[in-house]
Amino acid sequence: MKNISSAFVVMLLVLTVTLISCKQPSGEIANSGTQASEDKSAAPRIVFLNIDTLLSKYDLYLDKKKELEEQAKSAEKALAGKLEAFQRRIGKFQQEVAEIQQKANTIAPVELKKLEENMHCSNKTSERKKKH
Q1: Domain tally for the chain?
Q2: Is residue 122 assigned to a domain?
């Protein structure tokens, strides 16, 4: 949310500077150097910006808002996919543990230790894959 609001502020700042520079007549640009030396006591110009007008007449805000919403949706989908995969891995691990616990009474201690090592090794390899 902070990214969206900071992007909005930056867009408004850029748009404001653009509007101010576009609305200044070309005669003022040429004479601005001489006026500054002559009118040092003149009051600074105050520029008012109506955000409602910017939002209604300029599509930059709407385009960027739409783009950010699409990025948020794609990030949510990716996160949901990762969550589903993680939940499947948890379920699979719980099933394996339950099967081992059921077989523990009938399996020899040596075989039980091998199964535990195999599970431990498979978890390590899956963690390595996630890191890469």
Answers
A1: 2
A2: yes
| pLDDT one-digit tens code per residue, 24-57 | 555 544 444 545 455 556 778 888 888 887 777 7
C-alpha distance from residue 32 to each of 17, 29, 38, 44, 76 (Å): 17, 5, 10, 13, 52
Flag whether the pTM goes above 0.90: no
Asked if residue 53 and residue 3 are part of one domain, the reply reads: yes
Burial 7-20 (b: 16+ CB within 10 A, else e): eeeebbeebeeeee
105 phi and psi angles, rounded to 5 deg: -70, -30
Nearest to 49 by CA among 13, 4, 25, 8: 13
Residues 10 and 52 in one domain: yes
